[in-house]
Each structure stands twice: as C-alpha cells, then as structure tokens.
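Can you give me the bound-state structure? Components:
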Amino acid sequence: MQFTLEFGGGLELLCDSVKIHKVNINLLNDSDILTMKDLLSWVRTNLIKERPEMFMKGDTVRPGVLVLVNDCDWELSGQLDTTLEDKDVIVFISTLHGG
Amino acid sequence: MMSNGGDSSEIVRELEELKLKKAEIEHRISTLEAKLQDTATVERYDAVSNGDSYLTAPELEHGLSPDQIYRYSRQLLLPSFAVEGQSNLLKSSVLVIGAGGLGSPALLYLAACGVGRLGIIDHDVVELNNMHRQIIHTEAFIGHPKVKSAAAACRSINSTIKVDEYVEALRTSNALEILSQYDIIVDATDNPPSRYMISDCCVLLGKPLVSGAALGMEGQLTVYNHNGGPCYRCLFPTPPPTSACQRCSDSGVLGVVPGVIGCLQALETIKLASMVGEPLSERMLLFDALSARMRIVKIRGRSSQCTVCGDNSSFNKKTFKDFDYEDFTQFPLFAGPLNLLPAESRISSKEFKEIFQKKEQHILLDVRPSHHFKIVSLPDSLNIPLANLEARLNELTSALKEKEDGHVNTGSCTNPSVYVVCRRGNDSQRAVQYLRESGFDSAKDIIGGLEAWAANVNPNFPTY
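Here's the bound-state model for the whole set.
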C-alpha cells in the first residue's frame, strides 16, 4: 500500500529534515488490514532517525503532536485503531507555541 | 570613543526625554481629536433640535456617524459585511494578549477596521531585535513598554476607537478580571503556560479565543471555545515535553511568518465580532511558508472528558486562581536565567576578562549551536554544541592535552582550566554540570554568557 507521510512543526528534524515521504508498506498477507498503530511502529523503525522520544510516548504519539489522516484529526477516526487505505495522506504535526 | 563617553550619555538621556515627551504629545493629540469628534456630534444634534434638519446629518438607524460612514466606506460597500457588520464591529471589544510578532499586525488591522474597544496587554519592552517582525513598533520606542508603543500606533491609525493599555504580565491573579471586560480574546503569546492559562480563563468566562502561533517558517491558527467547539485542553490535554517548546528568540523566525498568522487572527476576530462568515472553529489552519502551502484540517470537537470544559469538570474560578501553569507545563512564563550550579563552578564575565588579559592557560568552550557560533564568537574558542557534547568529548580532551603539552615547554605547572560559554548562560551551566560529572573538575561557566560579556566587558561585541 502507498502512503504519503508528512512531518511538520519541527518533527521533520527527526527524519533528516525531510517533510514529505512517499512510502510503500507491504502487508504480511492479503487479508490483513493496516491500522495507525501498525503505521506508527513502522515510522518509528524506518523513518525516525533521532530522538524517538520526541515523536512517540508508549505506543502512541507524544503529547503535543496532532495526527491527521486525510486532513482529519485521528480522534475522529479512531486514533490508533484507524484503518488505513491505499494512497492515504497522514500528517504528523507538532503544535507551535511561538509568536 | 571613551573621550566622548560623557557627551554620548548626555545625548542618550536627552533622546529618552524627548521620546517620552513625543509619546505624551501624541497621546494628547489623539485624546483631543476624539473629544473634538464628540463635540461635533453634539453640535449636530443641537442643529437638529433647532429645526435646521436639512443642514444636518440625517439620523440613521444603524447609528454610524458621517465620519464613520466615510472612514469605513470600503467595508460598508461589501454586501456580505455591510452596515450591520460594521455596526456590530463598532460595538465589540477585543483583548489582544501579546504585542509581539502575532499581536503587531493583528492590532494594526483591528484598530484600523473599527473594533470599538481594543485592549492590549504585554509586560515586555521594545528591543531592536523585535523590529523585523513586530511591525507595530518604531525605533523611537526601543526601551519603552510594547503596550505604550502599540497603543500609540493604534491611536495614530484610528483616533476614534477606545484603546486600553495594560503594561503588566497576564497571571492567574489578574486574568479573570481583565478578560471578563472583552467580548473576544486574541492569544498572541509565545509560550505553553500562557496558552493553557488563557484558554482555561476563556472557558470559565465563556469567551471565544482566536489562537495563533508561529515559529521558524511555520504557523498555526484556530478558534477555540466557540459555539460548542473544543478548547485548547480538548486538543492538548497533556502539555508537551519542554524540549518540544521553542521560542522565536531561541529558534528564530522569519518576520513575515507570524505576520501572516497575525493578519489571519485579525480576520477571524473581525468575523466573530461582526458576526459575518464561518469562523475557524473545529478546524485548524497550518501554514508552511517554505513550501508555500496552507492547509485547513478538521479537528476534534469539544471533549466531554476535558478536565476544564468537559461535562463533569470541577474546574472553577477558584481552581484557576490557584493553578500553577508553570509547574503544569514545566515551562517558565517569562524567559529567565537558570541557576543550576554552585558559585564555585561559575565566574563572571569580568573575571573571565582578567583571565584573558593575564593570558592564563585555559580552554574556552562555546556550546551554542554551530549556526549561532557563525554569527559571532569570542577569539580562540572551541565550538562543541551542547547537543553533541557527549559524542565529541574527545575533541575537548585533545584540546586540553595540546595546551598541557605546550605548557610543559614553558615550565609552568598549572593545568589549564575549562571555561564554558553560551548565549545567555543557561546551556553553559548544563554543559558544566555534565563536564564535572565526566571528570572535568576545572570546568566553570561564564555567568550570563555572551550577552553578559557584551553588557559588562565589551559593548562593541554584537548580541542577537
């Protein structure tokens, strides 16, 4: 399955300062589904190059990170249980405080 | 330069005096102008009562005066805004918290468009390094309160609105009283404890909150606590780790980025105040200046579990007043100096100057990020950023070894000391703490960093 993953608000610094990643993730077998929980652990293993604690806490994202699946807050689609589909766009954004 | 010291301090003193006088005169002018306008209105009414109605302004149901019709004509001509929108705007009151990068453009537009009453609160003074983004301030106000400067600018654009000045910090002790006087609150602050405090206060008072943030090349904007929408805590129930909270003064920001977000804050405020359009509630605008992308995303609604606005919340005015927001976020409301080390592990910038002059053997370690080091640095300093110190400790060891070897030849027997410097004297303390734990017992931090060096030793040393 193909996904577009975007990192913003400083989170891109954890993956070599690259903001947009087009990735291909293969399912183990055809009947399997891919959830946000699976995607997070894939991201942590494959994309996060430094300070993983700045991205995750436990099995979810750290406080202050918004997760958007197709421009929609993942709270509205089931958080970690959100089922992903081919060509979904997932955005991870750290909240800003400056001004 | 030294011989002119007396002259220049005299000039500076006179300049300060003149600037203060100028601000006072400007304030007096706008007060008088407002007064004149009121008198003119009364005179017109007098004319009506004398029966010369064909010579006077017609009495208009919307209550706009002829001057107001002329001033705001371009807004009145908008079918979707029109006279109702303007009339609502003139009756509304808005409090802008923070007269910095976000507050500057927001205040300019809010004053210009005719918000009836505009409150400005900020505890800070105008500095030269604010000017690139805090466009409401002028050089004449450097060293003066931002609120005074911003209020003068607002009055000079629109002398007919009421501008309230609060030259103080917003705290739990004064927040309820100040915020309660306004219809709409604009969060233009720069730190997590303020953001939680302002949102909680808006929930308690039932006020909509127009919240903007900007850092580096990115910005974010949303409207909280409006029409059943979420509050800040619904979105961020747990504060982020301190290491994820950066200030513009530490991480940098391109001036126009908060400018864009501040303008959009003004826009959302105008929409709320005039009751026109669709506010950015339950949605968030994300702005990425580098890639020229602006996306609007759907965010969650109000959380019934929210500790402040939720169904079973016991949060009240008393809880608010006693709440320690700095402790909750582990982040200071105001940037202040850290105090990690005992006195014997520290030296002042003046003491370090003597070491420099006496040519005592030492290593000067600068722990700022390398792009800071490139802006300016002290001569003969070794740059190892704090973040890499552990990994690059061998560079310090070999630099020390080199000095020691050089020393053997000169016959001296004292070991070279390590002095650590950074921009303001916080990271240097963290570095010294780490170095002492790693066996560098001579490590000392230079109190106040390069800013103290510039203030106390070399006034020609650039600060940023």
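A couple of observations. The mean pLDDT of chain B is 91. The CA atoms of residues 35 and 160 of chain B lie 9 Å apart.
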